[in-house]
Amino acid sequence: LVLPWLEKVDQVCVFPRGKIFETQLEQERAIFEWCRERAKVDPGRLHLQLRWYRAKYVRTVRSIFPRGDPSMELGQTDPRDVLILEEPEHLCWYHHGQRWPVLFNHVIGIV
After folding, report:
1. Torsion of CA 37, 46, 103, 28, to 10 degrees
2. Distance of alpha carbon 94 from its chain centroid, rounded?
3. What would you report as the CA-atom Rg of the chain, rounded to the nearest whole angstrom?
4. Which of 5, 10, 16, 88 could form a Cys-Cys staple with 109, CB 3.0–4.6 A?
5. For residue 76, is pLDDT > 70?
């Protein structure tokens, strides 16, 4: 799952009750805790890996957009089977890198 990593100033606009994550690992732990407590899914039983791309919240359109090419932030050893993009329309409008289906076997977008 490829998620946007927002700077603190943008996190305040997006997350409820002023929640701010200092690190990606801290946010990952919160996501997995939500999976266990709210969705009743054990993330340890899934082969789910989180990856992050640098992003910015744009207030005028109330949306999150990447800062640069998110595909360049994926490591060479990162799995390339299934890619789940959160807000895919924003990741594709200005994406000048390789096409996602070239980089991954399966591409899924969640709006």
Report:
1. 30
2. 16
3. 14
4. 88
5. yes
SS3 category, 52: strand
CA trace torsion 83, 85, 90, 95 (10° rounding): -10
Q: How far is CA 23 from the centre of its chain?
A: 14
* CA dihedral of 71, 72, 75, 76, whole degrees rounded to 10: 90
The vertex-61 CA angle with 58 and 62, nearest 5°, equals: 65
Q: Which residue matches tokens 């992003």?
A: 55
Residue 63 CA to residue 111 CA, distance in Å, equals: 11
